[in-house]
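User: Sorry, folds how?
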Amino acid sequence: MSTIWLVRAYTPPPSSPGAGSERHYRFAQALIRRGHDVVLITSAIARWEGRPGTDLSADDYRDEIADELTVRVLRGRPYANVFQRFLSMIHFELMVLRNTGGLAPPDLVMGTSVDPFAAHAGQLLAGRHGVPFVLELGDIWPRTLVDMGAINRWHPGYWVLRILELSLYKKAVRILSKLPFAKLHVAASRRDPAKVVYLPNGVDLSRYTPGEYPPAPEGGDGFVAAY
């Protein structure tokens, strides 16, 4: 049995409506079913609203338990524009590094990008505890920001994020991504593409199919789910 820490900035706390259906809760539950202890470290800030989705009163963090999963919800820094969000991302990394007391030491740490600072916090925690670091690569920052026209390659923020990105690729023992061609980007960044594992979203049909439905027939006429 291993203790795994998952660091992700924008996972809603268990007390939020509909939180249990969020991808990282299902991912954590799959690990728990395989005998691992899992701790999810996240922020109280809702990603799209830029403000707290839960009240922490005067505390820096609160622990919530959801079906054997421990979720440490950290106080976040609200934001209303791009610059404030940048400060909020840095604030989250610092909060992660300061607020892991009382948790069982990890055997592995996984950090998720977006955003790179959250993933970097996972990298630093892994180094602090001398355990492997796994990077979960969502949107490829800063490349995505450039493609969207939010910044250009001469922007100081681009180079801050690019340096972080290269460090994450170098330090990770594995890079998990839902992006089928992430390996090409890692190779173009002069990092080891053999680390990249393509891991698309899965579907747990037991959550959606009533028990009285007949099982899918064997052979070529099975049930097909499209996402």
Notes: Residues 27 and 202 are 9 Å apart (CA to CA).
